[in-house]
Recover the amino acids of this structure.
């Protein structure tokens, strides 16, 4: 696996974990078109690499992401509506790809988690926030729409809460994000945040990478596929897994009372 060169991201591989840090701290890691492109390239580069078990996404400088980049939007203004639509849809493409990424996507949420940052939190498999993080969908207060984010917010927290948050641009903290089901953990401080991240990554490490990828795809398919055909396909996948290398290793490890090779 060769990772792309990035100007807006910091990349660090630590064993089976790829740490991706949004690195535009002067703008609270606002999501530029360049950053969108680099994130999509990184996700594509590791998509088929089962040696990467988890991707940890966070922001530099104490903030996760404060939303879209105003400079990009100003530049699109001169080119007209089509340029705005293309700029907006590119971020939606990133969310689609991140949602479907085979690896476990972990979002570590500090400071501003607004607009596009909120959207990224909604497509994570595990979301860990610090209690004083600030979440919100500010778009309507700026006279615009959370156009690409909205479907992912609805799927994450439900239509009723999404309507309230999007139509009031209300801000809320990590504890409220936990109550809404937006995040899985709200931690008191940075030290507790780091401890929780290490715990979650250790749990991911126990799970077979191929089984995790197939399970994630199965869970996502429940939102769009009919139940009968979905269960038919799942039965075939189960049979392939049981008779495959991971299934054989997992069964043998259980009998021999040892850790399977992916958890060594």
């Amino acid at each position: 696996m060769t990772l792309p060169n990035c100007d807006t991201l910091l990349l660090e591989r630590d064993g089976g974990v790829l740490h991706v840090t949004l690195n535009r701290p002067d703008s609270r890691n606002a999501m530029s078109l360049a950053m969108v492109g680099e994130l999509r390239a990184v996700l594509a580069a590791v998509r088929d690499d089962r040696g990467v078990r988890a991707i940890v996404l966070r922001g530099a400088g104490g903030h996760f992401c404060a939303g879209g980049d105003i400079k990009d939007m100003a530049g699109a203004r001169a080119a007209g509506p089509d340029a705005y639509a293309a700029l907006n849809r590119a971020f939606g493409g990133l969310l689609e790809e991140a949602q479907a990424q085979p690896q476990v996507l972990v979002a570590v949420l500090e400071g501003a988690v607004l607009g596009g940052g909120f959207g990224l939190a909604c497509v994570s498999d595990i979301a860990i926030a610090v209690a004083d993080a600030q979440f919100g969908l500010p778009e309507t207060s700026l006279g615009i729409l959370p156009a690409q984010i909205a479907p992912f917010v609805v799927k994450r927290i439900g239509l009723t809460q999404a309507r309230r948050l999007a139509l009031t641009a209300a801000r809320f903290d990590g504890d409220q994000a936990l109550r809404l089901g937006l995040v899985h953990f709200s931690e008191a401080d940075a030290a507790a945040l780091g401890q929780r991240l290490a715990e979650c990554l250790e749990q991911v490490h126990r799970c077979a990478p191929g089984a995790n990828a197939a399970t994630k795809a199965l869970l996502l398919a429940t939102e769009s596929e009919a139940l009968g055909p979905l269960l038919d396909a799942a039965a075939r996948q189960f049979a392939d897994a049981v008779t495959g290398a991971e299934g054989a290793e997992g069964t043998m490890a259980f009998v021999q009372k040892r850790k399977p090779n992916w958890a060594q």
Notes: The mean pLDDT is 94. Strands lie at 9-14, 17-22, 54-59, 104-109, 112-114, 126-130, 134-136, 185-187.
